[in-house]
């Protein structure tokens, strides 16, 4: 089971880097959530977050990125994710699992002198946690939390998916 969860974590990173966002959405359970908190111990329902999306909001975000013109993504970001330090805990007999892992996301947009920050490579190191559940015999992401190390600093142009 741990190998399946590890493969799912790497598959998610690859699909995001390849901008295969429709396929990426299929990795999430129907009651899934995607959260980037501002503070270490905040409650996403009571406190401000960088992003807190349920599956419907994620579908809307993917629709906007993939099929609508967005000035903030013209030209589109190119990303590269490196995943390490994966620790997986499986709840035996319940078809549930959790994982913690480190992620380093690098993002760059090419372009010309008229657009701020183009050509710069931005780094987003993070501690990630995720819970997984089996749906019809297939592992799905139930909840994902991305705790950015630089979450207390200004983050410009966060118009792509972490």
Description:
This protein is 21% helix and 43% strand. It is built from 3 helices and 6 strands; from the N terminus they run ααββαββββ. The protein has one domain: Nuclear Transport Factor 2, Chain: A (Roll), CATH 3.10.450. The chain is an alpha+beta fold and 162 residues long. Strands 2-1-6-5-4-3 form a 6-stranded mixed sheet.
Domain unit count = 1
The helix count comes to 3
Mean pLDDT across every amino acid position: 89
Helix content: 10-25%
Task: Please outline what is shown here.
This protein is of the alpha+beta class and 162 residues long.
Task: Explain the layout of strands and helices.
Elements: H1 2-17, H2 21-25, E1 28-37, E2 49-54, H3 55-67, E3 78-91, E4 96-108, E5 121-135, E6 138-148
Parallel strand pairs: 1-6
Antiparallel strand pairs: 1-2, 3-4, 4-5, 5-6
Task: Identify the notable features of this structure and list them briefly.
3 helices, 6-stranded mixed β-sheet, alpha+beta, 162 residues, Nuclear Transport Factor 2, Chain: A
């Amino acid at each position: 089971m741990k190998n399946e969860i590890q493969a799912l974590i790497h598959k998610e990173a690859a699909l995001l880097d390849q901008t295969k966002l429709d396929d990426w959405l299929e990795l999430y359970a129907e009651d899934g959530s995607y959260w980037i908190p501002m503070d270490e111990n905040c409650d996403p329902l009571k406190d401000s977050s960088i992003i807190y999306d349920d599956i419907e909001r994620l579908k809307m975000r993917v629709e906007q990125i993939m099929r609508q013109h967005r000035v903030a993504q013209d030209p589109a970001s190119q990303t590269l994710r490196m995943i390490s330090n994966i620790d997986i805990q499986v709840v035996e007999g319940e078809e549930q699992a959790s994982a913690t892992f480190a992620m380093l996301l690098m993002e760059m947009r090419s372009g010309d002198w008229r657009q701020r920050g183009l050509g710069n490579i931005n780094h987003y190191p993070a501690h990630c946690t995720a819970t997984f559940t089996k749906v019809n015999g297939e592992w799905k992401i139930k909840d994902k939390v991305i705790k950015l190390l630089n979450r207390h600093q200004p983050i410009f142009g966060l118009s792509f998916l972490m």
